[in-house]
Structure formats: C-alpha cells, structure tokens
Amino acid sequence: MSINYKVKKKKRKPSDSKITLDAQHRNKINEITKLETSLPSLKRELKKNIKEKDKLLKSNDGFGFIESDKGKKIYILNQKINKLNRTISQIEKEKIKDEYYSKTAHILYEYYDNVKAVSQRHTNKSTDNELDKMAEEYEYGKNFVSGTQNKKNSY
C-alpha cells in the first residue's frame, strides 16, 4: 500500500524591497571605492593586453599582411585597451565620484538635512555615531555643491 502525499508549493509574497536613500548612497560610494582599489589590477591588465597586442603585431611575417584570426584578436585587444584607458583615466581624475556628487549632491543635502531635523526633534542631542557620520556626509555634499557653484560662477 503506497501513500501519496501532495506537496504544496509555498507561495512567496513579493518582498517589499524598500531601500533608503542613505543605503543607496552608501552602496554607490562602496562601488566607487571598489573601482578605486581595483586601479592597480586594471593597470596590470592594460599592460598585459598591450604586450599581447605588440606580440601579435610583431609576429606578422614581414609582408604587411595580418591573418584574419590575428586581425580579429588585435581588434578585440584594441577595444579592451581603449576601454581600460578610459576607465583608468576616469578613476584617476575622480570623474566618476565627481559626476555622482554633481548629480546627487542637492538630493543628499536635502535628505541629510531632513534626517538631522527629524532626529533633533525626537532627541535633543545626537550622540549616535551614525548621525554624526551622516552629518559629515551632509557637510561634504554641501561643500561639494558650493564648490561646483563657485567653479561655474568663475567661468
């Protein structure tokens, strides 16, 4: 005698994936920091690709012809080299961070200003380290906005 059991699948409710602006900001800053720390490995990869491209270019039999397979590899390496050069220059010039703050500084400024006001209404003293960190980022964003406005006005 066999017993048949019906296995019910558990229904999952769609999760409410709300995330605060502060969490999104921290994720973006972490992403930018990871890019900055990956700079040495990007430079190593660039050198490796350049050496490989030079090796392929020197291996053409001196007749000025490049075999189609080598030509494809050289083309792909050129694309990688150009992409790496752009990425490295953006990281070194801090363009990524500057663009991020120029696009979001006013939003972050308002957000941290509101957070600070709400926290001061609920507690008269802000001893929480998290609030102090938020205030520092608020001040950084405020200084960044005023610095970009001064640059625009000086042109």
Describe the protein.
With 155 residues, the chain is mostly helical. Among the domains are: 35-92; 97-123. Helix content is 75%, strand content 0%. The protein has helices at 21-37, 39-58, 68-92, 95-122, 129-154. The N and C termini lie far apart (89 Å).
Write the layout of secondary structure elements.
Elements: H1 21-37, H2 39-58, H3 68-92, H4 95-122, H5 129-154
Summary tags:
155 residues
Kindly summarize this structure in a few lines.
The protein has 155 residues and is an all-alpha fold. The protein is 75% helix and 0% strand.
C-alpha Rg, in Å? Answer: 26 Å
List low-confidence stretches.
Answer: none
Shape: flat
The number of helical runs is 5
- Provide mean pLDDT, rounded: 79
Count of extended strands: 0
Report the structural category. mainly alpha
Termini, distance in Å? 89 Å
Taking the sheet with the most strands, its summary is: none
- Helical coverage, percent range: over 70%
In sequence order, what are the helices and strands, one letter per element?
Answer: HHHHH
Strand content: under 5%
